[in-house]
Amino acid sequence: MPEFIPLISDLEITKQIQKTGQKISSDYKEKDLVLVGVLKGSFIFMADLTRQISIDHDIDFIGASSYEGTSSTGQIVFTKQPDLEFESRDILLVEDIVDTGNTLLKIIEFIQLLNPKSIKICTLIDKHERREVKMDVDYSCFSLDKGFIVGYGLDYNEKYRNLPAIYDLKL
Ligand code: IMP
Ligand code: MG
Asked: Which protein residues have a CB closer than 5 Å to ligand 2 (ion)?
């Protein structure tokens, strides 16, 4: 039976997202902000983050998938293209977790082709241990050295996204 070790409570998540939302609201005051969630892992984070941002902004999603089980396959498959116009706009990518960095790198390369004014990264969790590409994360709610976590949108083989807090999964 898998074991779920509590790591980050729902209250801690709420507090950090509040702070991050305030920072984004002030940094993007004079800008044309588009929040772009990376599906599927970011869907809950996006829903909470957008409600903590007090300035006008648009919402879009990109679908990208790289993981099977607890290790990245290295191959990124785009499962959904953005709907909105990105040209000359300020794109803020919203991720659940940055691990090797390969998924974001591919997404950034793709978005650059759409000529945005700026691209920045906001992640709920910045996981360092297995980073393979240099990736400057502009906003991160939590930092993690290692481990495989689930809950609050994060899955293991599509399960456990519904858990309201974040747990270390021991298989
Ligand atoms: P990367 O390309 O290695 O940075 O992987 C990023 C994607 O892998 C994330 O968007 C997640 O979907 C998934 N991922 C990485 N680490 C974890 C984890 O600890 N739990 C659940 N999913 C993870
Ligand atoms: Mg995933």
From this structure: 41, 67, 155
Domain extent listing, the chain: 3-170
67 in contact with ligand 1, CB cutoff 6 A: yes
Report, in angstroms and rounded to the nearest whole number, the Rg of the chain calculated over CA atoms. Answer: 15
Q: Tell me, which fold does domain 3-170 have in CATH?
A: Rossmann fold (3.40.50)
Q: In angstroms, rounded to a whole number, what is the distance separating the alpha carbons of residues 49 and 14?
A: 9
Q: Which ligand is nearest to the CA of 70?
A: 1
pLDDT digits (tens, 9 = 90+) for 50-100: 999 999 999 999 998 776 666 666 678 899 999 999 999 999 999 999 999
Say what the pTM is.
Answer: 0.94
Question: For 155, how many CA atoms within 13 A lie in the half-sphere containing its CB?
Answer: 16
